[in-house]
Design brief:
Layout (H helix, E strand, L loop, with lengths): L6 H9 L3 H8 L14 H14 L1 H9 L44 H4 L43 E3 L2 E3 L103 H65 L1 H5 L3 H8 L7 E4 L3 E2 L3 E7 L12 E7 L4 E7 L1 E2 L7 E7 L6 E8 L2 E3 L6 E6 L4 H30 L1 H5 L6 E4 L2 E6 L6 E8 L12 E7 L8 E7 L5 E2 L2 E10 L5 E8 L5 E2 L6 E4 L7 H52 L3 E4 L8 E6 L13 E6 L9 E5 L10 E6 L6 E7 L8 E2 L6 E4 L11 E5 L11 H15 L3 E7 L14 E8 L2 E10 L2 E8 L15 H18 L6 E5 L5 H10 L8 E6 L6 H10 L2 E4 L2 H7 L12 E3 L26 H16 L9 E5 L8 H13 L3 E5 L5 H14 L4 E4 L4 H10 L2 E4 L9 H7 L3 E5 L2 H6 L7 H9 L4 H4 L6 E3 L4 H17 L1 H13 L5 H16 L1
Parallel strand pairs: 4-12, 31-32, 31-36, 32-35, 36-37, 37-38, 38-39, 40-41, 40-43, 41-42, 43-44, 44-45
Antiparallel strand pairs: 1-2, 3-5, 5-9, 6-7, 6-10, 8-9, 10-11, 10-12, 13-14, 14-15, 15-19, 16-17, 16-20, 17-19, 18-19, 20-21, 20-22, 23-24, 24-27, 25-26, 25-28, 28-29, 28-30, 33-34, 34-35
Length: 1238
């Protein structure tokens, strides 16, 4: 069939779907810029397609015969010449390049095949074959079978733009030739990519049809990550949101466009071709849109980079400018300070709104400065003429001074100033202002200004520590070297020269004499078992009689070729001898240092020949010794850290055991399941009313709370508890612990409301700690007010208790402070150097200065009144002790008020500070000091009973130092009216101060494991010091006590005679305040003092440590003893206590023969000593006669003589018992909370 269509008709046909096509057709142009000649291409392609369809059978035949079809018949074929290379799938066109094989225009399907004319059109194509005579009936389009479509790749999102990337090429798959081949294969298509139709309102002009379809930009070029520069960067602008690209529309398949079996283009085919063309254009438009968006994004990134670079330049310029201003500021500080004061006031005060200012504004190390004050801004300074500045640096530690401030103008003006220089080592300035006794001190906190351009506080403190250590080492090294030089003659006396002989043979010698420099020293090991037959020998070398200890440790080797027989076995090593050495000192050991040979204690020593060191060489020796001392100090510090960690672990274990004992002692009343509850757990509380005051109750109610009754949102109202069985003697209650609870609190009752009987654990309530709470337990703030504190002001046990109890409560995570009078003898105490100024105020008719210092890890405030009340060299002993201590009590409360401190607990001690209780409630509670509750402790009822009674009345709780003593004095008039708030809590000892494992006063530190060696060394030291029989293994009995009637003087005297009668050695350490008593004991010392009895009439704390360590028995025969620390200290050191069972002695010592059950309960919380073990720890007696004393002492001595192995095990057992403050501290904390609840 021959037909023809004009170019205008074809343009019009295709333009029905595209207005742009109509415009191009009217102008006689190819669509989208194509050449005019291209309009005929579809007709030629149509013809070619007809020929291809007609020859499909021929291609099949050729294929079966193995004949290569011509190129135009191959997939993607054309009129090009055929080659032997297999057809390759062309890669996607490069960005901006034309599609392969299409020239510069995008070939359309309309151009590839001309549309068929309408049925009634009777024209033919000029130059074409003649038309068929017989009309071909119109047939519906056939869809030939096609290969599987190439999968459309997913869209890629790049920089907020959605692209449809090109489809990767698919290698052709050989397949049998179908019966009917499509006119066009897949490779004939221009593109098989998924296309994206243009948006409804496309803002850009359509690209020309001849323009290639650019691929989307590579994903790596424009990553979808966050912008490189944040919005906070100066000059940054957010990238414009890209125009949304609609999803790509699927491209119709070529086989669905044309009927391959029909040479006539139908209207449907034309419309499908137009749709296909439109889809291609839409895809091209989407690609162009993506390109434009990518360019816009790149432009945004470029602008951001420029803005960031500009910001960096601006920052550098600002830093440079700031540095320039800083340099000018530092350079002109002296000039600024020298300005007229009125200029400073006018420039800085700005109308007088500030209390003070400085010139320069920032204090700089090593520069002058002025501080100005505006008197009108202070009530204390307003209208005053003589204003003084009290100042210092580094928390008042350096450079303290006070000076009269200079008025600015006349004295009546508002401003005054002082000029000063800032030290190089200052990191801060502290100051206050004063006028006519009134202080402006920032509400008690003092004023503080940072100092700039110097070292930090940590750096300064480290520098000062290092400097002090170096100066100390320098002084020690210089003195030691001077002593070495001075004692050279004495130290060389009797020292062998050349070689050393022992037992008739040469033991040490040198090959060429002992001279400064390298010397080969030889040692004869013959007949010496050290190191064994083949073991190594270690030589330990020092100089000048071991002036610097072991300076060299060298391994000696057997000398080859040297004589080897019964008298000769030579080892040698090179030794570097310094020029300052005049003797070489040596000892040998085996390689492991387990066995030593030190020449029977005299060391091996040889003279150095030709020793004549210069001053420069001695200076070098000093520097070497400084290095040695520094190394020794570092090793000591490292050892101290290790020891501290070890002690900390032991303390934690002891604390845990104390908690377990407390729980075991209450398990017969109340238990919790699980025993260690956690926040959020379901817990079961079991209560045994038969073991309490609710034993007859039919019903038992539980009332609970949390966090010491402070968690109001989770209270447990009075609830009836249930019995698991009808015959059970206990009741139960279950509940869930709140997640923010760190403590459970309970009380029990037999009813609800008035008239009910309660069990509140004697006012302490029942508690169970809770783990893993979301909130932390707040610390208690406890303030002790006392007149004694060990070790700085210790007279008796009161000082020990104040220090140890404060530390124990602080170790539980609380804030603890102590207030003491500032005695005059504190000024000479080496422990109180560099006290810090705290506050100064007018009160009680005088000016009071308060300083502070840390003592035994506790912050201590020292109250020093201007009236000189404590300008004395003793704590007690003046006739006005009562007046002085009453003044101190009020001054301490005034200090708390002036500094706005609000502790939870005021803990006052004994008659000396009993006034605190009454004075607080009468004079201070309603005048600003509103928060504290008062706890009062009686240490000894024999003194100040009237004051004690008054304090018991006003205090919220009163304690005494042991349960037994509380029972003994409960009928006393001072306490009997307040027994409902009277408790006995035994004292403890500070297990770190009293620790034989670290005690610096002992010749050998020891523990329970090696106590036998340690105690023997201490005993030998005592024997040597007091002239007792040295080396004797006699038992040693000791008394460490004040010699007063309370301590049982007659029994002490009798015990001395009885101990000597039993063959023991006796040591007495103590003094008597009564001269008559002192005279009696002095006469006894003169009569019986000798090889087995020693007397030391003094208060000697270091000596007491040694006596405890040396003694096998410590005797405490007190007539009454509120608590007593002696017996607990003695057990810590392995000395068995022999005591009279009274007061605290009864509460801490359990007789070996009669009190196993009580010991098991008190020590281990066990009701059966056979299960928990024997916990008895001493020998006790009841009466006050000598017979009772002899009975107890004889039993102890008998065990020492008759069963020494058992006795040593007994010593080890009592050393392991915990008599520290672990358990008493828990009791005191419970009482503190009880006092707070009122």
């Amino acid at each position: 069939m021959a037909f023809a269509m004009s170019s205008e008709a074809m343009a019009c046909a295709s333009s029905r779907a595209n207005p742009s096509l109509r415009v191009s057709a009217k102008r006689g142009l190819a669509p989208f810029g194509g050449v005019r000649g291209g309009v005929r291409a579809p007709l030629r392609e149509a013809k070619g397609g007809a020929r291809k369809m007609a020859g499909s059978k021929r291609r099949e035949t050729r294929a079966e015969a193995g004949e290569q079809p011509p190129a135009w018949m191959q997939p993607g074929g054309s009129d090009q010449a055929s080659t032997s290379t297999p057809p390759q799938t062309a890669p996607p066109p490069a960005y901006g390049s034309p599609a392969p094989g299409s020239g510069s225009a995008i070939p359309s399907y309309i151009q590839r095949r001309a549309p068929p004319p309408p049925p009634d059109m009777g024209f033919s194509i000029p130059g074409g074959p003649p038309a068929r005579e017989q009309a071909v009936p119109e047939t519906p389009p056939l869809v030939p079978p096609v290969a599987p479509a190439v999968p459309v790749p997913p869209q890629v999102s790049v920089a907020n733009t959605t692209y449809a990337p090109p489809v990767p090429p698919v290698a052709p798959t050989p397949a049998p030739t179908p019966a009917r081949t499509p006119a066009y294969s897949k490779q004939d298509m221009y593109s098989t990519q998924a296309v994206v139709p243009p948006p409804a309102e496309f803002p850009y002009p359509y690209p020309a049809a001849a323009a290639p379809a650019p691929p989307p930009p590579a994903a790596a070029a424009f990553p979808a990550a966050a912008p490189a520069y944040p919005a906070a960067t100066p000059g940054y602008q957010a990238a414009p949101a890209p125009v949304p690209v609609p999803p790509a529309a699927p491209v119709p398949d070529l086989a669905s466009v044309f009927d391959a079996d029909s040479p006539v283009l139908t209207t449907a085919e034309i419309e499908r071709a137009i749709a296909l063309e439109t889809a291609q254009l839409a895809q091209a438009h989407a690609m162009e849109l993506a390109r434009l968006q990518a360019e816009a994004q790149a432009e945004v990134v470029r602008l951001q980079a420029e803005a960031a670079a500009a910001a960096i330049r601006a920052e550098r310029e600002a830093a440079s400018e700031a540095k320039r201003k800083e340099e000018i500021f530092l350079k002109t500080i002296p000039e600024q300070v020298r300005k007229d004061p009125w200029d400073h006031v006018k420039q800085t005060m700005g109308g007088g709104n500030n209390l003070f200012f400085t010139v320069p504004e920032r204090l700089v190390v090593g520069n002058p400065a002025r501080v100005y004050v505006n008197k009108q801004r202070s009530d204390a300074l307003r209208g005053k003429h003589n204003v003084r500045l009290f100042a210092g640096f580094n928390d008042w530690k350096i450079g303290k001074w006070d000076t009269a401030m200079i008025p600015v103008g006349s004295d009546a003006d508002d401003y005054a100033y002082s000029e000063f220089n800032v030290p190089d080592l200052a990191y801060g300035m502290n100051f206050v202002f004063e006028a006519d006794g009134q202080f402006e001190n920032s509400g008690g906190d003092n004023f503080f200004l940072d100092v700039h351009y110097g070292k930090s506080k940590e750096e300064v403190e480290k520098f000062l520590r290092d400097k002090a250590a170096y100066e100390k080492d320098l002084a020690e090294a210089t003195n030691a070297c001077d002593q070495e030089k001075y004692e050279a003659g004495m130290r060389k006396e009797g020292v062998a020269s050349g070689e050393l002989h022992k037992d008739g043979r040469v033991v040490f010698k040198s090959d060429r004499g002992i001279k400064p420099g390298v010397t080969h020293v030889m040692f004869n090991k013959a007949l010496n078992p050290i190191g064994g037959p083949e073991g190594a020998i270690r030589l330990h070398v020092g100089f000048n009689k071991f002036a610097q200890g072991f300076e060299l440790e060298l391994i000696m080797d057997r000398i080859k070729g040297a004589p080897f027989d019964a008298e000769n076995d030579w080892f040698g090593v090179d030794v570097q001898i310094p020029p300052t050495a005049y003797t070489v000192d040596m000892v040998v050991s085996d390689e492991s240092k387990d066995n030593w040979d030190n020449n029977d204690g005299y060391d091996y020593r040889l003279l150095v020949e030709g020793s004549n060191a210069s001053n420069e060489e001695w200076d070098a020796r000093i520097q070497e010794r400084i290095v040695y001392l520094s190394k020794m100090r570092e090793q000591a510090e490292a050892a101290a850290k290790i020891a501290w960690k070890t002690r900390l672990k032991k303390r934690e274990a002891a604390h845990k055991e104390a908690t377990l004992v407390t729980r075991r002692q209450s398990a017969h009343i109340i238990t919790c399941e699980p025993p260690y509850p956690k926040a959020g757990d379901l817990v079961k509380i079991s209560y045994h009313p038969t073991n309490t005051n609710l034993g007859l109750a039919t019903d038992v109610y539980i009332t609970g709370g949390f966090n010491r009754w402070t968690l109001e949102t989770a209270e447990v109202p009075a609830t009836l508890m249930t019995r698991p069985t009808a015959t059970a003697d206990f009741v139960e209650f279950e509940m869930v612990i709140p997640t923010d609870a760190w403590m459970m609190d309970f009380v029990f009752s037999d009813g609800v409301g008035p008239g009910s009987t309660y069990d509140n654990h004697f006012g302490r309530d029942y508690h169970f700690p809770v783990e893993d709470s979301t909130t932390e337990k707040p610390p208690l703030h406890v303030c002790h007010i006392a007149v004694e504190m060990a070790p700085i002001a210790k007279v008796g046990g009161l000082g020990d208790v104040v220090t140890a109890l404060a530390r124990a409560i602080q170790d539980e995570g609380n804030l603890v402070e102590v207030i003491l009078p500032k005695y005059q003898f504190f000024n000479a105490s080496p422990m109180l150097g560099n006290m810090e100024f705290e506050v100064e105020f007018e009160a009680l008719g005088t000016r009071i200065v308060v300083t502070k210092h840390v003592v035994e890890a506790i912050t201590v405030f020292f109250v020093e009144p201007g009236n000189g009340m404590f300008n004395c060299d003793s704590v007690y002993g003046r006739n006005d002790d009562g007046v002085r201590f009453d003044f101190f009590c009020n001054a301490a409360l005034e200090f708390l008020l002036q500094t706005n401190r609000q502790p939870d607990i005021l803990h006052c001690h004994d008659w000396s500070t009993a006034t605190v209780a009454a004075s607080y409630w009468q004079n201070y509670h309603h005048n600003g000091l509103w928060k504290p509750k008062v706890v009062f402790t009686i240490h000894n009822m024999n003194y100040g009973q009237m004051k004690i009674g008054e304090a018991c009345h006003h205090a919220q709780l009163t304690t005494t130092v042991s349960p037994s003593y509380a029972g003994e004095v409960s009928g006393h008039a001072a306490v009997r009216d307040n027994l409902h708030k009277f408790h006995g809590v035994r004292n403890g000892i500070d297990s770190e101060i009293w620790d034989p494992g670290t005690d610096q006063f002992l010749p050998m530190n020891y523990t329970a494991e090696n106590h036998l060696d340690g105690k023997r060394r201490a005993r030998e030291e005592i024997q040597q010091r007091f002239g007792l029989t040295w080396g004797s293994d006699q038992p040693m009995v000791a008394v460490v006590s004040r010699l007063t009637g309370q301590k049982g003087l007659d029994l002490i005297k009798h015990s001395i005679h009885h101990s000597l009668k039993r063959g023991a050695q006796f040591v007495l350490l103590g003094s008597a305040p009564d001269p008559k008593v002192q005279g009696d004991f002095q006469a006894m010392a003169n009569a019986i003092g000798g090889p087995n009895a020693a007397f030391a009439f003094a208060f000697d704390e270091p000596l007491s440590h040694l006596v405890y360590a040396a003694a096998d028995f410590v005797l405490v025969p007190s007539m009454f003893e509120p608590c007593g620390l002696t017996q607990m200290i003695s057990m810590r050191y392995g000395a068995v206590p022999v005591v009279r069972a009274t007061g605290g002695l009864r509460d801490t010592i359990f007789d070996v023969d009669t009190e196993k059950d009580r010991a098991a309960w008190e020590v281990d919380g066990s009701s059966d000593w056979r299960v928990s073990g024997d916990a008895t720890n001493g020998f006790s007696f009841e009466g006050t006669d000598t017979g009772g004393l002899e009975y107890a002492l004889d039993r102890g001595l008998d065990t020492y003589y008759n069963d020494p192995a058992w006795f040593r095990q007994f010593q080890e057992r009592i050393m392991r018992q915990d008599w520290s403050w672990n358990r008493p501290a828990l009791d005191y904390i419970e009482l503190y909370y009880s006092a707070i609840r009122g």
